[in-house]
Amino acid sequence: MRTLDSLVIGAGQAGLSASFHLKRLGIDHIVLDADSAPGGAWQHRWDSLSMEDVHGVANLPDGNAPGRSRARANHAVPEFFGSYEQAHDLPVLRPVIVDRVTEETLQHGQLLVVHTAERRWHTRTLVNATGTWNRPFVPHYPGIEDFAGEQFHTHGYPGRDHFRGKRLLVVGGGASAVQFLGELAPVTDTLWATRRPPVWREDDFDPDAGRAAVAMVEDRVRRGLPPKSVVSVTGLALRPQEREAERRGAYADRRPMFARIEPHGVRWASGKDEPVDAILWATGFRPATGHLAPLRLRSAAGGIQLDGTTAVADERVQMVGYGPSASTIGANRAGRTAAVAVSRLLEDIAA
């Protein structure tokens, strides 16, 4: 069995960037992608999300991302990724779902072993770029199993038209919740609940502010804490397409979280019942890292501690699209950082 110098798991923005830089450095590697087509998580976004709605898609190395337009993001970005893979002849294999990563000692050293249902690969280093999309998070509240209405997460958002004529509760204090309210409040009756009051940003989000926000997230992973999203420290801002929802009061009537879920609504802490037909959980995602559990990378604080993109517990493992690099710009830069770290480690192994 051929031993790879590196193996990348995931072909989203971070994975493609890492593969580009690994290839540029002459490092023998493959990319395993769980999806059947290019596009990473973007291909699964809802149809109404246009390129005008997204925060922006960073250029990949030597590849220009699509600009703002009314084009559907779940078409434009996958087309960009697919064309990029072909133009740079990146070694992507799909669909391949990784079950787990272990280690094995052979005559020529200790190797990482990547397991799938059909086969396994031996590799000297690993770049994990699995993102978060496959791990939607829904907090548990009493009565959640007995709710007779519909429940959706951002991961499976069915689109605006599905909620016409329904009383909808949007749960979550991040950018997705704000976007959903902006889209839904003009066509249906909405309520908004968050654990904490939202932090609104009035000033311009300039590059200095962006770097400061990324630094705060980076500090958490450096200390081994579970990562938070970059938007959790940037604050929220309304875009022009959300002003109609603002005029209707969708953001002004923010409620604290309910105490429990009833079959036909929710009960607030005051004891008052509120009828709702559907709940939309815009409560975020968790890093998709379960396949790495056999490597015991987590710190006592609950996160994977990183030095740059390198896992402190195992320098053979690079984490991209995790923590501070879980944004399009951050993921792109992290791909290069990870490839350089892989190259240096391989040089050390060879010596």
Write the layout of secondary structure elements.
Layout: E1 3-4, E2 6-9, H1 13-24, E3 29-32, H2 73-87, E4 92-93, E5 98-106, E6 109-116, E7 120-123, E8 126-128, E9 150-153, E10 167-171, H3 175-184, E11 189-194, H4 207-222, H5 231-234, H6 243-247, E12 254-256, E13 260-262, E14 265-267, E15 273-275, E16 278-281, E17 306-307, E18 310-311, E19 317-319, H7 328-350
Parallel strand pairs: 1-7, 2-3, 2-8, 3-4, 8-19, 9-16, 10-11, 10-16, 11-12
Antiparallel strand pairs: 5-6, 6-7, 13-14, 14-15, 17-18
Pick out its properties.
351 residues; alpha/beta; FAD/NAD(P)-binding domain; 2 domains; 5-stranded parallel beta sheet; 19 strands
- Summarize the amount of helix as a percent range: 10-25%
Uncertain segments: none
* Name of the level-1 CATH class of the largest domain: Alpha Beta
Name of the CATH superfamily of the largest domain: FAD/NAD(P)-binding domain
How would you sum up this structure, described in words?
The protein has helices at about 15-25, 75-85, 175-185, 205-220, 230-235, 245, 330-350, and strands spanning about 5, 5-10, 30, 90-95, 100-105, 110-115, 120-125, 125-130, 150-155, 165-170, 190-195, 255, 260, 265, 275, 280, 305, 310, 315-320. By secondary structure, the chain is an alpha/beta fold. It has two domains: about 5-135 and about 285-350, FAD/NAD(P)-binding domain; about 145-200 and about 235-280, FAD/NAD(P)-binding domain, CATH 3.50.50.60. The chain has a five-stranded parallel beta sheet, with helices on one face. A hairpin with a 2-residue loop joins β5 (about 100-105) and β6. It is globular, with a radius of gyration of 22 Å.
